[in-house]
Design goal:
Radius of gyration: 17 Å
Largest sheet: 8 strands, mixed
Oligomer: single chain
Shape: globular
Helix content: 25-40%
Distance between the termini: 36 Å
């Protein structure tokens, strides 16, 4: 498993505003969208391409286009939806799947309640969107789900990660024979007793969409 922490002043600036408890939901959504686009630039460095020739107004030119099969972007519901627009802005031809997972606040374990993913992901590059890599359980289950369907290259885009979650994820995926990359804006200090990232930014879903319960 490879971990890439985006080192850019704009990333740091936008993340700082996201952390601020006074940032309202509309601003939080807009900044999340902008931040994910910056992270997507880093996350797609290994996106597969194939050569192509085009005609410019002056002469022919060689370039590249995204290779087939198309990559697939998979937001983990519900908070991952807030990252989708920023990701597909950079990968507009990608297909989009959905994975609904919920974490039990007592056991901190994740369970799948809905999915809209192709049965066969053979040869597909998958980009998983999960804003908070806290315990790592949800993301580990999501990666295993995609690998079981044939995905052969997985990149997870996260706003924040905790050291404990990264260690747990690496341990859980030790037997997975598929390249997995984590792209995040920062690795924070630790998890608290409730499984929240410290200092973190709170519950990403609630801050994106408000408390619905």
């Amino acid at each position: 498993m490879r971990i890439h922490v985006a080192d850019h002043p704009l990333v740091a600036h936008k993340l700082t505003v996201l952390r601020d408890t006074t940032t309202d939901s509309p601003t939080f959504r807009r900044l999340t969208d902008e931040l994910v686009t910056l992270l997507a630039y880093e996350a797609t460095r290994d996106v597969r391409t194939e050569p192509v020739a085009v005609q410019t107004p002056v002469a022919s030119a060689r370039g590249v286009k995204l290779a087939a099969p198309k990559p697939i972007v998979v937001p983990i519901l519900r908070a991952g939806l807030g990252m989708l627009e920023g990701m597909v802005r950079l990968l507009p031809t990608a297909e989009v799947g959905f994975l609904g997972m919920v974490r039990d606040e007592h056991t901190l374990k994740a369970s799948t309640y809905a999915q809209r993913i192709p049965e066969n992901l053979s040869g597909r590059q998958c980009y998983v969107l999960d804003p908070m890599l806290a315990t790592g359980g949800t993301l580990a289950d999501a990666v295993s789900f995609l690998v079981d369907r044939g995905a052969d290259h997985i990149t997870a885009v996260c706003l924040l990660a905790a050291p404990e979650g990264l260690a747990n994820l690496e341990r859980r995926l030790a037997s997975v024979d598929v390249p997995v990359t984590i792209v995040t804006a920062a690795v924070d200090e630790h998890l608290n007793d409730h499984g929240f990232i410290v200092p973190g930014l709170g519950d990403a879903g609630d801050r994106l969409y408000g408390v619905a319960g």
